[in-house]
Amino acid sequence: MTLSELESLMRKTISKNFPEDAHLFSITEPPSHIKADASTNFAIIVAKKNGIKIADVYKKISDNLDTLGISTELAGGFINIYFGKNIYANYISGILSSSSPFIKNENTDKKVIIEFVSANPTGPLHLASAISASLGDSISSIMKELGYTVFKEYYVNDAGNQVEMLGRSLLSRYTNTPLPEDGYHGEYLIEIAKKLPDVAAEWAKNNDIKKFSDFALKEILEQQKKDLEDFGLTFDNWFFESELHKKGISDETLKLLEDRGAVEYRDGAKWLKSADNLIDKENVLVKSNGLKTYFLNDLAYHRTKYERGFNWIIDIWGADHHGHISRMKSGVKMLGFDETKFTVILHQLISIKRGSEILKMSKRSGTFYTLREMMEETSKDAIRFFFTMRSPDTHIIFDIDLAKKQTSENPLYYVQYAHSRINSVIENAKAKGFDTDISELSKYELSDDDRIIFKKLFWFEKSLNQCVKDLSPHHLTTYLIELAKEFHSYYERNRVIDETNPDTTLARITILKAIKFTIKKGLDLLGVSAPERM
Question: Strand ranges (DSSP E) for 177-321?
């Protein structure tokens, strides 16, 4: 029985006395200084709502919960809740016998599309893309774990001036002539130029920029896909901006806006009407020269998301795009869609720390840290874990030296070592003749140390729910660090393998297996490995 299942059962039991208020019941994890397994403010809420005494509400609740093997106490209006051993035993049995114990039926009809990374196809992926990749993939995995249907998409901006400039830059590298003033200076184009076919001489002679652009796009996208695969990330779909033009989706979207009276004409251009009648140059849909803007194409693209049947549309953008959110929501609404189903996660920038030096990066100047370079210097695991340790709205300083340390100072190593250490203990127990496939707690009296561990394990699901609620996986990384700390402390204070006491040994092995399952599940959701040996 998982936490949500128990909470639901408790709510159902309480409804016998409070049928109209039971939906207000929820449990929270109490502060660490309180020994209770859970707490609720239900008595305070119901007493105030109905004009009755808190003590009277508590009496009825406690009588009901006693039937579930749950004891309670009233403390300052809050009800502290203590679970019986059977509840913890049931929980451990459940998670160890199911690969997906946390799926919720109410989530299974929710179809979510998460679009992230979507880097310009003009150069290698850099660390800003790694932030988006880490966030998006982790959130997707956590949602799937809770029962959502999740579709991961990458949007490729393969149209517009930047692609033409990419082609011109490659032509310059090929002919060894000065780069355009606004060209791309990275050395990666030198390497791509070396791969150009013999017919490229004819392209250069005819100044066929499109051929150079197409070749550069193909090479760069292949490398981006390879980098992402090595990062442990694959997308369900790569959506190309050029398809919006080929299939007339942008034109259809413009006409739909015009038909709905959402377009105004000013200075020879077409603008999306503003709700407050203020002029915003970013609201231009079609320029006076007839060229479609990024804004129109973005609206057209998001229109396809709604029309594909997704009922939650999530984008992950860099914080510098924050001004684009309101106009996108306004445009989506004017297209006739529910803008509340469209959510944008903004992530802050990243700084790289090496020793005492903070490295500055610039993609256009060619001085930047690529995802590939950082994976080779640290690891996929380090990047994913460190980049999800903070809320997306927090600036990240990635300490390379710390990420490479093989000590408990490194939070990733600390968590992975807990998993490896447990595996070593279980193998040792097996070598000494214990049947470690058995999960047995019935003959074991829980100590205070055991209850601390059980309590932490039981709230794992809540951390996953919080990740989805806040659209931030940092709740999970924080949880894993805390669980690893509790395990290391537990292991130092308690003898797990005791050949003179097989019942205690099997019980503690069962507890360790539950910790190992939880750590591995959490690391899997973050896209981080859980080594058996270190």
Answer: 237-240, 263-266, 269-272, 284-286, 312-318
CA distance 310 to 148: 11
CATH 1.10.730.10 intervals, the chain = 411-526
CATH 1.10.730.10 matches 411-526: yes
109-160+226-347 domain in CATH 3.30.43.10?
no
- Ranges for all domains in the chain classified under CATH 3.30.1360.70: 3-83
Q: Choose among 21, 7, 17, 34: nearest CA to 452.
A: 34
pTM greater than 0.90: yes
CATH 3.40.50.620 spans which residues of the chain? 109-160+226-347
**The tokens of 366 are what?**
């060619």
Q: For strands 149-156 and 237-240, give the pairing.
A: parallel
What are the pLDDT digits (tens) for 178-197?
A: 999 999 988 899 999 999 99
- Beta strands 111-115 and 149-156: pairing type? parallel
Q: What is the pLDDT of residues 59-98, one digit of tens each?
A: 998 988 888 889 999 999 999 999 988 898 889 988 998 8
Q: Is 403 exposed, middle or buried (0-12, 13-18, 19+ CB in 10 A)?
A: buried
Class of CATH domain 3-83: alpha beta
Q: Residue for token digits 């011109």?
A: 168
DSSP per position, 247-306:
TTHHHHHHHHHHHTT-EEEETTEEEEPPTT----GGGEEE-TTSPBPHHHHHHHHHHHHH
- Token pair of 489 as six digits: 């402390």
Residue 517's alpha-carbon distances to 240, 421, 448, in angstroms, are: 40, 13, 22
